[in-house]
Design goal:
This protein is of the alpha+beta class. It contains seven helices and seven strands, in the order H-H-H-E-E-E-E-H-E-E-H-E-H-H. Helix content is 26%, strand content 32%.
């Protein structure tokens, strides 16, 4: 029991049983349908990064109940997550499907595979809807330590998918904000 559980109470019922050391079929199916995830990492000092990843549903390959493969497509070349993985291979993944308040979470360890290593394992990855800059750099093999469905409360509270909230945010589009160059 951690300090917060000691103070506020331990999980009960389904919440107490939902964190598993593998991906149950529901989590696998959710990931195969998810077009978006956030990948969280930290270095040895605990400095964190959260990186968005997206593609057509199925862009993250479910290999089996303890392994995922995420394509690494060329982006801004900041590589904060990869710098973190040099010190700390732990990763947290948060998968979302538009319109769904429930999400899937996976925590595990990363192994970076270059094109030759992917080919040697018989893994073919694709980039969907590539632009002129898109190119597959490598794959991230995730070994699952734990996974679980996340309850819908946070997304429901935020009204993230609420049509009225979405329309209200369009009243002042991002291009009217004072955004820095390169965003």
């Amino acid at each position: 029991m951690n300090a917060a559980q000691a103070k506020f109470g331990a999980p009960k019922g389904r919440a107490a049983k939902k964190v598993l050391p593998y991906m149950q079929p529901w989590v696998q199916a959710f990931i195969q349908r998810a077009p978006f995830l956030v990948m969280a990492s930290s270095n040895a000092n605990g400095d964190c990064d959260a990186s968005p990843k997206g593609g057509q549903p199925g862009f993250v390959k479910v290999i089996d109940d303890t392994h995922l493969l995420i394509p690494d497509v060329r982006g801004n070349k900041l590589f904060q997550s990869y710098e973190n993985f040099e010190d700390n291979p732990k990763v947290g993944l948060f998968f979302m499907i538009p319109g769904q308040d429930v999400t899937a979470r996976v925590n595990g360890r990363v192994e970076q595979l270059d094109a030759e290593q992917l080919a040697a394992r018989g893994i073919e990855m694709q980039i969907f809807n590539p632009d002129d800059e898109a190119r597959l750099l490598q794959g991230l093999l995730i070994t699952v330590d734990e996974s679980y469905p996340q309850c819908p409360r946070a997304l429901a509270f935020s009204k993230l998918w609420d049509a009225d909230a979405i329309e209200a945010s369009r009243v002042q589009p991002l291009d009217t904000w004072d955004l820095p160059d390169g965003v």
